[in-house]
Amino acid sequence: MSKALAKESHAAGQREDCEGGSRRRSWGLLVTAGVGGTLVALYAVVTPFVTPALRKVCLPFIPATSTQIQNVLKMLENRSGSLVDIGSGDGRIVIAAAKRGFKAVGYELNPWLVWYSRYRAWRDGVHQNTKFYISDLWKVSFSHYTNVVVFGVPQMMPQLEKKLEEELQCNARIIACRFPFPCWIPDHTAGEGIDTVWAYDLKHRRGCETKSLEITPETES
């Protein structure tokens, strides 16, 4: 009798050990899956913000202040045509311009910021007048825009200055925020400190007005 009880007790102990081991393995798998899922999600969120810093020219996301936006809008007074924001971030410049009647477009490398910009434009009721693209500014032609807003960094401004001068039409106005272009002399300036914006009319860079004055209509003899 005692031997039978001992066997039953031993078998019950083995079952408990097996069940305990199975529960530990299950918890281990759950913890591993949870940690793995968290790391994947963190990678997906962080990568779009970190990747620009690995490029030759880093263009970090620094939201425009309300004063900067007002200064940009001041430089757009009495202007018309299409508008592009290079490095549009969370879309606040594009959305503000759309509310003033511009057909506005933003180019941004960070997909999370682009999706958020589209949501903000929809929320503010200007999604029909705005577009946001996930794209590298160096791979885009800005030739069909008459108003260009740039939130750049000093390292990129010389190269961007050359690109815009080659691509834009004479009636274009370029508005630089935080950092001016190195060679161009601004036609208008607004604000001070980090809120300063500089406006450049390309017709003055190319002498378009002088050329137009030199052309006289032919007269019939």
How does this model look, in words?
By secondary structure, this protein is α/β, with parallel strands linked by helices. Helices cover 47% and strands 15% of the residues. The chain contains 7 helices and 7 strands, in the order ααβαβαββαβββαα. The protein has a 7-stranded mixed beta sheet. The radius of gyration is 30 Å and the shape is elongated. The C terminus is likely disordered.
Q: How would you spell out the order of helices and strands? A: HHEHEHEEHEEEHH
Q: Mean pLDDT, rounded to whole units? A: 79
**Class of secondary structure makeup:** alpha/beta
Low-confidence stretches are 35-56, 210-221
Please work out how many helical segments DSSP would assign: 7
What is the 3D form?
A: elongated
Span of the ends, CA to CA: 137 Å
Topology:
Layout (H helix, E strand, L loop, with lengths): L1 H49 L15 H10 L6 E5 L5 H8 L3 E6 L2 H13 L6 E5 L12 E5 L5 H11 L5 E5 L10 E3 L6 E5 H5 L1 H7 L7
Parallel strand pairs: 1-2, 1-4, 2-3, 4-5
Antiparallel strand pairs: 5-7, 6-7
Key features?
alpha/beta, seven-stranded mixed β-sheet, elongated, 221 residues
In brief, what are we looking at here?
With 221 residues, this protein is α/β, with parallel strands linked by helices. The chain has helices at residues 2-50, 66-75, 92-99, 111-123, 157-167, 202-206, 208-214; strands spanning 82-86, 103-108, 130-134, 147-151, 173-177, 188-190, 197-201.
